[in-house]
Specification:
The complex is a heterodimer of chains A (about 280) and B (about 325). Chain A is an all-alpha fold and about 280 residues long. Chain A has helices at about 10-45, 50, 65-70, 75-110, 110-120, 125-140, 145-170, 175-180, 185-195, 200-215, 220-225, 230-235, 245-265, 270-275. In chain A, helix 3 crosses helix 13, helix 4 (about 75-110) packs across helix 10 and helix 10 packs antiparallel against helix 13 (about 245-265). Chain A starts with 11 loop residues before the first helix and ends in a 7-residue tail after the last helix. Chain B is built from 14 helices and two strands; from the N terminus they run H-H-H-E-E-H-H-H-H-H-H-H-H-H-H-H. The chains are: A mainly alpha (about 280), B mainly alpha (about 325). Chains A and B meet through helix 1, helix 4, helix 5, helix 6 and helix 7 of A and helix 1, helix 2, helix 3, helix 5 and helix 6 of B.
Chain lengths: ~280, ~325
Amino acid sequence: MELLVPSGRPRKGRRVLADVAYYTGVVAICIPFVFVFYWMLLGAMKTQVQNTASPPLFLFHPTLENFRKVFVANQFLKYIENSLAVSGGATLLALGLGLPAAHVIARYRQRGVALGILVARMAPHLSYVVPFFILFQKLELIDTYACMILSHLVITLPIVVWIMIGAFEDVPLELEEAARIDGCSRWRVFTHISLPVCRTALATATILSFIFSWNNFLFALILTGPEHRTLPVAVFNFISGDEIDWGGLSAAATLITLPILLLILLVQRHIVQGMTAGGLKE
Amino acid sequence: MPRASRNTASVESTTGTQPPWTARPGAFIERHFGRLLLLPAACIIATLIIFPLTFNLYMSLQTWFVSSTTPPTFVGLKNYLEIFGKDGRFWNATWITIQFTGISVTLQLALGLAIALYFHRDFTGRGLVRTVMLLPMVSTPAAVALIWVVMFNPSLGILNYFLTSLGLPPLLWLGHPRTALPSLILMDTWKWTPFMVLILHAGLQALPLTPFEAARIDGASRWQLFRYITLPLLRPSIAVALIFRTMDSLKTFDTIYVMTEGGPNNATEILNLYTFQTGFKYFHLGYASALAVVLVGFVFAVNMVLIRVRERSWSY
């Protein structure tokens, strides 16, 4: 019963036992989800010999050599820079275009545009790949930041607009009207009243759109060469060679995951809400 | 009074007799505020949605190999006739897509519901558990897929080590046509069950307490409470979780490309992979465009059915 409704507690001795059992269950559920990251971290700190040991090693002398190698031999600094430029650029551009649009959609009921953005949310990225490839080839933009940032708008713009429509709709109309009566222009109402009120949603939208752009693999796979390749493709190249460098691969995977971990800690309460924006309202 | 003077100023500039281009730019922005703010986004949507879709439609009527020197030639509906008529690989990919999405989403829903119910209680460390649950779903698919490749490795991987220490026979995992798809589903379930857990958990927290109390007084059993109260009340959350998960599952590409590239023997080639291979391995762009059009139609049809079902189940 206590699973569904908090009810009367049993006596103390049995309660402790029940709690121990309950927390054991919680830990057991969490283990598989954490283990993959734990194994990644261990792999990143093992030598190639330790990584290919059978049975697998849990206790060993850790090394940071893999991380050094990833930066020096595999030019990861360049890929990190590329990823930051592409994801940062695509997120900023999506904010610049998406925030005003979301405000107008929320306030002036422009459902057509909202529907268009839902279509972009549903469409598999594979349907963009051929047109983008041909277009950017014609424009001679293949393997540039420009084509990557523009194509990543497919990811970032729907996230920003969907999250912000919901947020702007929740801004009390009286607040905006009061500002209008006090002589604010509509633009000032937008920048000085609505946006600050929605700062939590704004943070969520920014972080989620950055993460999903950061994670994207497909566009970089097709639209970039070695110069402007982003991290996911750079990591993938670890298994395309003859002999797999387990340690380097794990170190690279760790490096790409770390920023995401730091970002989600900032807005973790709002992430799922953001990912289902537009879906939780009638 | 500053307010009054400001009001008159704006009235003058919008209704005054001088031609519009001499009016203050601020007044112009004010008058066309809605359209101006929407304009950039509308342009982008046009380029992001209308352009790719119409371009795909146009290209799907052509035959064109990227590498060849001959320009695209118009072939009408030939690509589509071939896809639906004699392309066994297409039907195989469709069937695998249905299996992959159907099985993994169902598994994730069942597991997610069970875990959400287990967590539906006050306990210390909730915040930590939530962080743990968030990690798999926001982590880079290509990167975690590689870690799974390491773990799936038949000779050195940790999973076979676990199996053999339990006295079970080791598996080939991604290496065998029969186990490759289940392995991918396992990985997908690991990555996305937390999404279900978090949505359903939020849904459970928001349920009203009164119906439960009333049913308890009437002597309902725990199963009855779940079956006749929790489940129906939770339906909206379940619908949202299902729709979003199906939507994203049909977009899966990165993890499968990294882990199997559609192999072995096309056993894991979902429609996304097949379209990609046609376009960027065989460079048959016209055919790939036709496949992309069919893919979009398929995805929209599935999503529309789900959205309809949801609307109906909400109005009961």
